Amino acid sequence: MIPPKKFGIWGNTDKDLFWKVLPEIISWSSHNAMEVYLTTRILDHENGANLNSRKISSKDDISNLDFMLVLGGDGTFLSLARAIEDRSTPILGIHLGDLGFLAKVTLKDLFPRLDQVNKGHYVVEERILVQASIDKDRKKINQVALNDFVICNGQSHRMLNALVNVDGHMVGNYRSDGLVVSTPTGSTAYSLSAGGPIVTPKVDSLIITPTAAHTLTSRPLVVPASSKIIISFPDTDDAIQFIADGQIHEILDSSCTVEISKSDYNVSFIDFDDTDYFETLRKKMGWGKRGDQ
Predict the structure, then answer these.
(1) pLDDT for 214 beyond 80
(2) CATH 2.60.200.30, the chain: domain bounds
(3) Where in the chain is the domain with CATH 3.40.50.10330?
(4) First and final C-alpha spacing in the chain
């Protein structure tokens, strides 16, 4: 890969650890003759007032950067992935949280990995996103997610009736607490906790997983990523919540329909030849261990 010359930083400004690491990264960039750009959120923070760095004023500024460095947990990573949209700028995630699958690098390996990136010793991995078109009050609401969409009843916590069609074929009426439609990236998130399968990122697919299904015959379903999934809500009086990546919320009703498909664009991750997806699963999930071992 071509060695980068400039990069941006996107981070969780609520974490003290972020502010501890940020000056070290800025110092590293100066030592390596690289330009670093910070988001407005960082520079407007009380801790960022004295930082002498270039500003990312808009999403379009990201297009001019060689990569984005994101520091935080999975939630911070997800927010950046949606903000980048169809811009091809790759993301390198630095994990500051307790548990997460998206960030490739821990703080312990931060500067050795940055040194690799600086030398062009990295690979770019493409991940699919999922998009939704919501028909509400004769208007279209569009959403995109890297991990998943979750559909559930509003604050009533009653059973959700969701009629699911895939490519014009009726799958069934899912009676459950809710539905998760996830990408392979999101298969290790909420979908997994609801009993869905782990799907490796290279499998071009979408996963439909009911949460707390009210019938034993309701099972997770994996469909090709080229599928169009249409969800409607017959005989539903309650407000319905639609949630993108656990962060963006829409309130729906029984007249709404949701069409879900693979997004027209991907998001790019910076990865390294010596990383192993299955080793990450073993570490994060404790595979192969018994009890408290």
Answers:
(1) yes
(2) 129-263
(3) 6-122+272-285
(4) 40
pLDDT category at 86 given cuts 50, 70, 90 is very high
Instruction: Check if 245 is active-site.
Output: no
Catalytic residue among 14, 16, 66, 74: 74
Residue 99 has pLDDT above 70, yes or no: no
What is the CATH number that goes with domain 129-263? 2.60.200.30
Q: For residue 185, which amino acid is it?
A: T
For domain 6-122+272-285, give the CATH number: 3.40.50.10330
H or E element that contains 20: helix 16-31
* Confidence (pLDDT) at 202: 95
- Write down the pLDDT at residue 291: 57
Look at residue 155 in the predicted model and tell me its pLDDT: 66
